[in-house]
Amino acid sequence: MVAPGFSSSLCFTLSMLLHLSCAYRVTPFKGVDIENPAVDVTPYPLAGVPGSKDVISCERVQVSGYSRLKLGSYANSFRVTLAPSVAIPERLHSKIQVCFHRNASLALCQCEKDEWKAIQKGGVWSSVMSPYEERYIDVKFVGRVSGSVSVAVEEDFQRWRLLFLGAGFILLLLAPIVSNWVPFYYSSLMAIGVFLLITILLFQGMKLLPTGRQECLVSYYKWISVLVNSILVNFGLSEEMHNPVSVFLLVGIVLTGAALGYWIVRKFVISKDGTVDVGVAQFVKRAMRIIATTSIFQSTLDAPLALGACVSCCTVCFLITSSKWLGSGLNSFSVVSSYKKDVWSEKKKKKEEEEEFLRLKR
Ligand SMILES: *[C@@H]1O[C@H](CO)[C@@H](O)[C@H](O)[C@H]1NC(C)=O
User: What letter would DSSP give residue 29?
Assistant: First the structure.
């Protein structure tokens, strides 16, 4: 037999549990999504918030995104805005605080202190989120503020983000080829050399001239003019030579920069057999892959989808590079470099033979 005391206590426990689960059940908050893009909510006073004398009113709005199967919004973002109604005077706007978070199990208005953002006077709070996420906006009134706030969500079309995806994929695909391709090093290092030289001269020119730093290009041009003029005067030439001399000076600067790049390639990138140094090629390949991955991650605001895009791009690149069609292309590429190697070693052998021959003759 079950003791009556036990069963009643069991009943009591059960009812307590039910009660507790009711108390902790997430009350259905108002929600916004793209079909229902705006909602007005009125925060209600919370009873007994420990450690504060002020009345605190709270409310939560749920922002729901698309399902991740709807890939059409891959590059887009959701802009969420919160604006106080006109019934709330502007001087009270600083008492409205907003917390934008992901944690559904967080009790109402229990965000950390530094997660609360006050809205500016007369302004609107706004933030950006992934269009596939589910987020919560907790809005809090500190003190005696009453009135409603309106929350709205709109989709921002950011097609330009797809360029990042394309660029990342192409970089990933080309990394193993380009990193072994000698002209790539010549062209890019020459360009970097020209850029560096012009930047250095620009800063030198800015230091010499007392004019404002904002007009750096203008002051640079002035500096060059002053320099050219003084040179012309020193050599006793007329001022009409000014423009051609400036042009030649510019060409000289560009050529010097290119020469700098060329020298760096000869000195550090190309190994003795005329191919790209193995260490350099390895480093550049990895650097390109890192840049490609970063680029792919910039193509969407949604982290899981970005990870998916990255993994699929890597897989496709791997399949392409290991397939026979491109594999033969790569092989012919390495055949060329090994052919170069052979030529070089043959030349070396011939030279040695000649030296041997000369020594024997003597
Ligand atoms: C969500 O909030 C609950 C309650 O405060 C906390 O225990 C939990 O760690 C939070 N989860 C995350 C992922 O922050």
Answer: -
First to last CA, the chain: 123
**Ligand 1 site-directed mutation target among 105, 112, 136, most atoms within 8 Å of CB:** 105
Q: Where are the domains of the chain?
A: 28-158, 162-327
Output the pTM of the full model: 0.69
Q: Are 65 and 78 in contact (CB under 8 A)?
A: yes
Q: What is the pLDDT of residue 8?
A: 47
From the CA of 103, how far away is ligand 1's center (Å)? 6
Lowest mean pLDDT among 45-49, 99-103, 171-175, 314-318: 45-49
Give the single-character DSSP code of 239.
Answer: G
Tell me: pLDDT of 250 over 80. yes
Q: How far is the CA of 58 from the centre of ligand 1 (A)?
A: 19
Contact, 47 vs 58, CB < 8 A? Answer: no
Tell me, in angstroms, the distance from the centre of ligand 1 to residue 105's CA. 6
Hey, what amino acid is at 162?
A: L
HSE (side-chain half, CA atoms, 13 Å) at 334: 8
Closest CA to 74 of 139, 3, 162, 134: 162
What's the pLDDT score for residue 63? 94
Q: Which atom of ligand 1 is nearest to the CA of 110?
A: 5
Instruction: Tell me the two tokens of residue 86.
Output: 């006109």
Q: Which residues does 127 contact at the CB level (< 8 Å), separation at least 6? A: 79, 80, 100
- More confident of the two residues 180 and 237: 180
**Residue ranges lining ligand 1, Cβ < 6 Å:** 103, 105-106
Q: Given CA atoms 347, 348, 353, 356 in this order, what sign does their dihedral have?
A: positive
* Distance (Å) of CA 293 to CA 42, 181, 290, 303: 44, 21, 5, 13
The CATH number of domain 28-158 is 1.25.40: no
